[in-house]
Amino acid sequence: MLGKILRIIGIILIGLASALMILGAVGTVCIAWFPEKYESLAMMAPYKLIFQTAVVFTFLAGFIGFWSMIALILRRKNGWNLAVIALLLSLATAGTKMFVSNMVRGSVAPTNMRFYFSLFVLAYFLIMRIPSIREKVGFEKRDQADDDLNGLAGGITAMVAGFLTLTVHLWAGPTHTINGVNYVEVIHTELMVAGTVLVVGGLILLARDLWRITAPKRRMAEVLAPVERSL
User: Fold this and answer.
1) Distance from C-alpha of 17 to C-alpha of 62, rounded to nearest angstrom
2) Cα atoms in the Cβ-side hemisphere of radius 13 Å centred on 186
């Protein structure tokens, strides 16, 4: 049972880390390509190439992270490897952005949140590689009885990622507000649409897998009902 719990936690953690990577990449687009359009971001113009490179590789890290989450849910090979690659890319891009941002504007938020969360998730996955723990977790070991639980983990991850997206203007807004302008609001509509899709998709996955998990109990109840009535 402990192995199942650790595996589900790992799936949820890499999913959330990947969502933060994508959100981080989206949130850096303005600074990376259009700093001249905003007076309060003009000081970042000389460093556009650095941020553009960071955006590209952060998007790549997020996609690899989601790919690894799906691989872990489906018990495919290399799911763990893909997760580690995504997290290392996230740390590299976040670390670079933090260094430059601190040098230019004296602040590392909110990239530091992604950096430390990626570091935490990486540490978790490295611990899962310890032989005695790895055997219990069995990321690549097929077990039909656990497949529905992994599906639930995917649904939970989608819902939490959706809530993160829907509320990003609240928790990331203060660090993206420069001279009174909240730059998160520039893509408010897109974030709301993406967040809603994730939440609804997560709810559908949860409902489907809960229905499938409880199906044997319902069938058993249907079989026993006539017997109970006859007693």
Assistant:
1) 8
2) 17
Contact residues for 157 (Cβ-Cβ < 8 A; gap 6+): 11, 12, 15, 16, 19, 69, 202
pTM attached to this predicted model: 0.76
DSSP string, 157-175: HHHHHHHHHHTHHHHTTGG
Question: What gap in Å lies between CA 194 and CA 197, rounded to an integer?
Answer: 5
Query: What digits encode the pLDDT tens for the residues 181-197?
Result: 666 666 667 778 877 88
**Residue 106, SS3?**
coil
Instruction: Classify the C-alpha dihedral 25-27-30-35 as positive or negative.
Output: negative
State the CB neighbour count (10 A cutoff) for residue 83.
30
Q: Are 191 and 165 in contact (CB under 8 A)?
A: yes
The residue behind tokens 């001279």 is 179
Distance CA 160, CA 20 (A): 11
* Cα separation of the two ends of the chain: 37
Q: Which pair of structure tokens corresponds to residue 33? A: 């390509």
